[in-house]
Amino acid sequence: MFGYAALALFGAAVAQAQTQATALDIAAVQAHFTQAQIAGQPTYMLPTFTPQGTLGLTFGSSSISIGQKVDQSNANSSPQIAVVPASNGSRINAQSIYTVAMVDADIVGTNAQTTPLTRHWLVNNVMLQGSGSYSINYTGSVGVTDYAGPGPAAGSGSHRYVVLLYAQSSSFRPPANLSTAGVGLATWNLQSYVDASGLGPLVAANYFQVENGQATVTVPVTSAVVTSTLSTVTSPTASSGSMSGSASGTGSASRSGSASGSSASAATSSRAAASETKSRSFGLGLIVGAVGVVGCLVGAGLGL
Length: 304
Ligand SMILES: *[C@@H]1O[C@H](CO)[C@@H](O)[C@H](O)[C@H]1NC(C)=O
Ligand SMILES: *[C@@H]1O[C@H](CO)[C@@H](O)[C@H](O)[C@H]1NC(C)=O
Ligand SMILES: *[C@@H]1O[C@H](CO)[C@@H](O)[C@H](O)[C@H]1NC(C)=O
Description:
Blueprint: H1 4-17, H2 23-35, E1 53-59, E2 62-63, E3 80-85, E4 98-104, E5 117-131, E6 133-137, E7 142-145, E8 159-167, E9 186-188, H3 190-197, E10 202-210, H4 272-275, H5 290-299
Antiparallel strand pairs: 1-2, 1-3, 4-5, 4-8, 5-6, 5-7, 5-9, 8-10
The structure holds 2-acetamido-2-deoxy-beta-D-glucopyranose (3 copies).
């Protein structure tokens, strides 16, 4: 059995070691976003998404896997972001300007083009600092909407919080009512904002899930991402580390202990009843699925 602390260490080791996102990393991001119904269809939040790299999220000291379920209380403060470009991710560099946003894409099945989605975070004029694995330099940025942690209504199902990094070209012109600091959390139409302001392209994204209590709504079940079957997999090197684990740990989002992600699928919306038998409660959802654990171990060069 792997220790909680050990997992956190793997995450840190991988984050430090990886300075270029592999084809498998990119394929994993795309697979997760497709399976979670966030990207790839006209009714999804992102009708198209071609990642130029990966976007890692760390809450406190805990880095999460794509789509991981996180305890609401552990997402109260903004996550640290680590951006790792793919070899052809030329729009990810230390010279450009970016916009960071977080949007609640609501539950699986939501028509994101007709449903107002909640803007939880919007920062214009950020830069990337470091090299290889970049962090965000907020100096001189415009925090239009300060980070507001998830607060899904009780019983409303597992919400998908999508963190987005857009390239912000010199032609970017934000709408007047979203151009200065201090605009509170509110619903908006992300696509309209992107179109009207000339933002883009979207270069990297990640998402996590937060659920409050047991779902009283029916959430369509999505299929799992199985990284070993992704078309770019040529050898089982699991070089993608923590980014590709088909993992969904469960935070202790539900005090009743019934809400959880499936250990087999980050994208699987958590029908609480269905996943009850897999439910475990750890302080922060740092349990990753078996594939993710193996990936981390091999990725960190530790072997199993
Ligand atoms: C990077 O290359 C891959 C493989 O050829 C391709 O699928 C992907 O669209 C490219 N990404 C960008 C941002 O050009
Ligand atoms: C962060 O951005 C500011 C303003 O552009 C710049 O002066 C500073 O050197 C940057 N910091 C790093 C570590 O790149
Ligand atoms: C900004 O103005 C647009 C119309 O120009 C409106 O649709 C939108 O709701 C406004 N947003 C905010 C945050 O007030």
